[in-house]
Amino acid sequence: MLKNNVEVDVKVKCIEEGLTQAKIAEEVGTSPQYISRLIKNKENIVNKTFVRILDELGYDVVLTYERKTEG
């Protein structure tokens, strides 16, 4: 099972960075509607089969976010 609430995670990261989902969409070259659909449907973020395999093996999937370092 995917333990993260991806929608909340993205919203929090946008707030922390002072960005809107629309601005993120613009930066990555897609529509705000697509970004919204993507984060609301977790299966599009993390491969459903991957999550099912790990679930069957007795694991939960937890995403962590680390700030990139310049260098």
Give a description of the structure.
The chain is mainly α and 71 residues long. The protein has one domain. The chain is 59% helix and 0% strand. It contains 5 helices and no strands. Helix 2 packs across helix 3. The longest helix has 12 residues. The termini are far apart.
List the helices and strands and how they pair.
Elements: H1 6-17, H2 21-28, H3 32-40, H4 42-45, H5 48-56
Helix pairs in contact: 2-3
Which key features would you list for this structure?
globular, 59% helix, mainly alpha, 71 residues
Strand runs, count = 0
User: Major beta sheet, specifics?
Assistant: none
Radius of gyration: 14 Å
Q: Return the string of H and E elements.
A: HHHHH
Count of spatially separate domains:
1
Characterize the overall form: globular
Low-confidence stretches: none
| First-to-last CA distance | 35 Å
The helix/strand class is: mainly alpha
Helix content: 55-70%
Q: What's the mean pLDDT score?
A: 87
Q: Could you give a quick summary of the protein structure above?
A:
The protein has 5 helices and no strands. It has one domain (6-56). It is an all-alpha fold.
